[in-house]
Amino acid sequence: DDLDYPTKRLRTQEGHSSKVAAHYNELKECGLQVRNESRIVHLRNFNNWMKSALIGEFLDRVRQKKKGRIAVLDLGCGKGGDLLKWKKGRISKLVCTDIADVSVTQCRQRYSDMKTRCRNEDVFSAEFITADSTKERLSEKYSDPEITFDICSCQFVYHYSFETHEQADLMLRNACERLCPGGYFIGTTPDGFELVKRLEASETNLFGNDVYSVKFYEKGKYPLFGCKYDFSLEGVVNVPEFLIYFPVLVEMAKKYNMKLIYKKTFREFFEEKVKNDEQKTLLRKMQALEQYPAPDHSKLTSDKEEDYEHAKMF
Ligand code: SAM
Prior knowledge:
Layout: H1 17-26, H2 32-37, H3 41-65, E1 71-75, H4 83-88, E2 93-98, H5 101-117, E3 125-130, E4 149-155, H6 165-176, E5 179-190, H7 192-201, E6 206-208, E7 212-216, E8 228-233, E9 237-242, H8 246-254, E10 264-265, H9 266-273, H10 277-285, H11 298-301, H12 303-309, E11 311-313
Parallel strand pairs: 1-2, 1-4, 2-3, 4-5
Antiparallel strand pairs: 5-11, 6-7, 7-8, 8-9, 10-11
The chain binds S-adenosylmethionine.
S-adenosylmethionine is lined by residues 17, 20-21, 24, 76-78, 81, 98-100, 103, 132-134, 155-157, 160.
């Protein structure tokens, strides 16, 4: 957690991928204490809780169909924020891949620290690949050329690919082509409908609050690909992202024999999962809401509502 990468590493990729990679490469790993002091700590924790519940749900589904080893592809793994979730989910193999080489290095280090800490426990085996999944075929990079996955998990990443149809298609191919029959592609991404709704309600091409902001380049025109906006969150993320029109993704996925089985907004997912006592306890433990349960849910209907309303999972 104390790793520090002060050097700027810029890449020479075309388009916005280079900006995205450079941005994530420059992000400092500030350590748990600083992270916990951040104003968006509850949002981070909430997102983590959502991912835990999503991952748990789909690992259960895999286990209902098969016994034995489970292999997972973490597409856009970042610094490895989900490693513990996979350990808790008792998977056997994890392939972590990301465009940002510094993040992949940190992810590998976290994995190695986790293994050291859990000497007596069974920890999954892992492999780490630096690649731009919108431009490179992952299947050419796996150490086992025959590897297949039960789940591909793509958390808060897929929207970077919607710069062009080719990029979105290649990322989708990377996500799906090595899934076993009955395998799942799961993920979380900003809700394109909600973003446009908020933009249209704003008097300018900008909306947000003192914590986050979203700036579009054009209002009223929303091309299916390359509809760029700048997102920033307390200095945590400040990179170009692209609007995803979800029905297009659903159509595109058919090419890879995928059909949509599950799509919910964060609000819908939260309301469903929080009914489960185990998830509710986890939510409290992770301090995912400023105050939970909120008296008369006031926290959930004020600014906190915004925190999860603009995200969607698939
Ligand atoms: N999935 C991680 C998580 O949930 O903590 C990281 C999410 S972070 C918001 C987005 C990640 O997507 C970054 O690590 C970034 O480097 C990665 N990314 C963006 N574009 C990518 C691309 N073309 N190929 C692979 N990874 C990409």
